[in-house]
Amino acid sequence: MLHFLRSSVGKKFIMGLSGLGLSGFVFAHMTGNLLVFKGAEAYNMYGHFMTHNPAYPLISWSLVLMMLVHAFLGILLTKENHSARPSAYAVQASPAKSVTTASKTMIFSGSILLVFIITHLATFKYGNHYDVEYGGQTVRDLHRLMVEAFQNPAFVVWYVVALIVMGVHLRHGVSSIFQSLGFNHPRYTPTIKWIGIVYAIVVAAGFISQPIYVYLVHQG
Amino acid sequence: MSANHSHSATSTQKAPASMTLTLKVWRQSGPHSEGRFEEYKVDGIVPDMSFLEMMDVLNQKLIKAGIEQVSFDHDCREGICGTCLMVINGSAHGPDRGVTTCQLHMRRFQDGDTIVIEPARAKAFPIIKDLSINRSAFDRITASGGFISVSTGNAPDANSILISKTAADLAMDAAACIGCGACVASCKNASAMLFTSAKVSHFALLPQGQPERTDRVLGMVKQMDIEGFGNCTNTGACEAACPKEITLENIARMNREYLRAMLVTRKS
Ligand code: HEM
Ligand code: FES
């Protein structure tokens, strides 16, 4: 087991598994939050349900673990990769032999995501705690916190940029999961590549629509 | 051939235009010395020359001028041996897919072009001199499992081992690898996964490869990591640069083979 984790193939495998979990999470997170378009109550009740169910500790701790492992391995792999190519070439490869920018910049997009995720958790999960009552039940008023946060246009812009970066990370990442886990087949891989691109666009656009909507509609 | 015919042929045929090129060539006197680009002008290059013939013209010129020739590797000059790897304008084996440097023709370039010529750069491929690199890391990976055991004695009957056409074709595709190192040269991580996976796939797909199937992939991946190659990030640069068009499918197969071997091996 330890041999596996130390090997290049094993580390890639763990990268793929953690990437799979995180990609699944961002999709679920994005779709759930679309309830912002329905209204404050739906949004808050959804948030309440997500944090008050028996699976919550398991899910949240596995996400934390996946995030830590993914970021740690991503940084470690990048360091190893840099030392394997100590001097760069003077010229860029020809068009026929070049690859997508998204695939070459995973550590760059990933690092921005790391900063984004930390500030995101600090703003919302560990931000001001407001309460609201719906039919006698007191729940956290995340909607109010969010509306407050997105009054600041600079904050909205930062979200849009960070979420585009997430889209770029997923554009290479999603199809890459299959390759890392050992699945590549001429019949399916071209389709998987397309699904990866569509997935990235849907997740990024779905998320981006929310701060923009809140900024435009809920003027404080 | 009638005199008439040959006359009309030459009068309509344009003589191949001869090109003058500026070459920026990496010069490095030894593994531990500092390298740098030197600029040379070559003329009289005709479009039908191969890239290596152009390098020969350069070296002739250098010899006449009393300058030390550029060291570069070459052997078969027909795309079989894989030694001629160099990085031409940033691309391993030059701008086109599916060819080695020796199969690249000068008609791909234009009069007045500047061509930057570098060695493959990877920690695991130390530069011997100029464009010559030491690829013995590949030999050590191969020695760690890229072989099959055969019994001595009489030759077995032909076709006595059954192989499906699909498996034979896939194994043949993987076996096309000439070990040139273009995958390592082109990968931003200097990863040797395409090479290693081609060897692993070649044998894993064939019945003759089964006895060592588990140990092979474990041994080869281990040696690959020891040699200091980088980790694959699935960019696909190797596949694009491979003169034999070995595909990423082989790397996925190696990942599967490795996982399987890890699960079934009895060795610690
Ligand atoms: C929401 C957060 C994130 C998601 C959904 C995500 C998703 C993914 C996916 C699906 C992959 C492809 C895995 C593979 O090739 O098998 C990947 C690769 C990668 N990620 Fe992330 N990631 C996230 C955050 C991060 C962070 C915070 C970092 C770094 C600090 C990071 C760095 C990397 C790197 C360097 C790779 C390429 C590694 C490789 O291919 O070997 N990612 N990511
Ligand atoms: S010299 Fe043998 S492949 Fe080019």
Can you offer a commentary on this structure?
The complex is a heterodimer of chains A (220) and B (268). Chain A is 73% helix and 4% strand. Chain A has 220 residues and is mainly α. In chain A, strands 1-2 form a two-stranded antiparallel ribbon. Helices cover 35% and strands 12% of the residues of chain B. Chain B is built from 9 helices and 7 strands; from the N terminus they run αββαβββββααααααα. Chain B has a 5-stranded mixed beta sheet. Chain B has a two-stranded antiparallel sheet with strand order 6-7. Chain B is elongated, with a radius of gyration of 22 Å. The N terminus of chain B is likely disordered. At the A-B interface, helix 1, helix 2, helix 4 and helix 8 of A face strand 4, helix 7, helix 8 and helix 9 of B. Bound molecules: protoporphyrin IX containing FE and FE2/S2 (inorganic) cluster (FES). The site of FE2/S2 (inorganic) cluster has 13 residues of chain B, from loops.
Structure characteristics:
heterodimer; A: about 220 residues; mainly alpha; 3 helical TM bundles of succinate and fumarate reductases; two-stranded antiparallel ribbon; about 5% strand; B: about 270 residues; alpha+beta; Ubiquitin-like (UB roll); Fumarate Reductase Iron-sulfur Protein, Chain B, domain 2; 2 domains; five-stranded mixed β-sheet; two-stranded antiparallel sheet; 7 strands; about 35% helix; about 10% strand; disordered N terminus; binds protoporphyrin IX containing FE; binds FE2/S2 (inorganic) cluster
